[in-house]
Amino acid sequence: MSFRARHLLGIEHLSPAEILSVLDLADRYVDLNRRTVKQSDVLAGLTQINMFFENSTRTQASFELAGKRLGADVMNMSVAQSSVKKGETLIDTAMTLNAMRPDLLVVRHPSSGAVNLLASKVNCAVLNAGDGRHEHPTQALLDALTIRRAKGRIQRLTVAICGDIAHSRVARSNLILLGKMECNLRLIAPPTLMPPGVEGFGCELYDDMKKGLKGADVVMMLRLQKERMDGGFIPSEREYYHRYGLDAEKLSFAKPDAIVMHPGPMNRGVEIDGEIADDINRSVIQEQVEMGVAVRMACMDLLARNLRAERGRAAVGVMV
Ligand code: NCD
Asked: Is the distance from CB of 106 to CB of 127 less than 8 angstroms?
């Protein structure tokens, strides 16, 4: 069980076998996290730095908890109080932190590609916690684990991803992962929020919720990402909710046992009806949060195995 690459920058470079091995290991961490004593020493002696250049609740908290439960020394760099505000570039900040010899660097950044660029400049393992509209690999992995635990499998399901697809790294990483798992993918969005060129992912496109949800096993809702919109993409939130918000009536078109997902943070009454979000028989939104910690533990565990192996080889080289 291992990753081929030193970093986790996206789902794009993972094989189906690598994805399944993360899910298998994460299942074991779910068991650990449900114990009273949640401590392991898998990352003992290693230093993890979390650099979040964009707001985050779930992702940052779960990366921090994941590192602490595995015994790493975890530091959260507070960007608001850092020299970034004095004009330091991303690369200079990264090089400064790199000089402090972290082993794992968790990075979220508003620009697509920024995390890949940073990874090319440092010599620790970098985990992408979301870069612009590009990728959010640990979100897609935690979504896959949630789906697999609810449905008993991840392959060949009908999954409908609904809402602001154009601005969503969550949608992009999920499309890549679920495509690798041979799922039947449907995208439902108003034409203004459907990104151009998305047909290349091999999915069916809809602008009508009832048609798109017909027979779906999984209904994945997305947040309207206003911070990435530079203009009017929707007539009004009320109108958007009427046409695209998930309510009981629209959900009745999906399979009777379809699960409802949302990566959070959610806007109740805009993307999703509050009662559906809280319905423990349909919604797995809280399970997604729980799986987030376990998946991040699994990813950091696998990357740390590579680091140790690489350093072991280098040490043997020095001795020879
Ligand atoms: C998502 C993100 O930041 O991309 N949130 C998350 O990580 N749980 C989705 C979003 O912000 O809408």
From this structure: yes
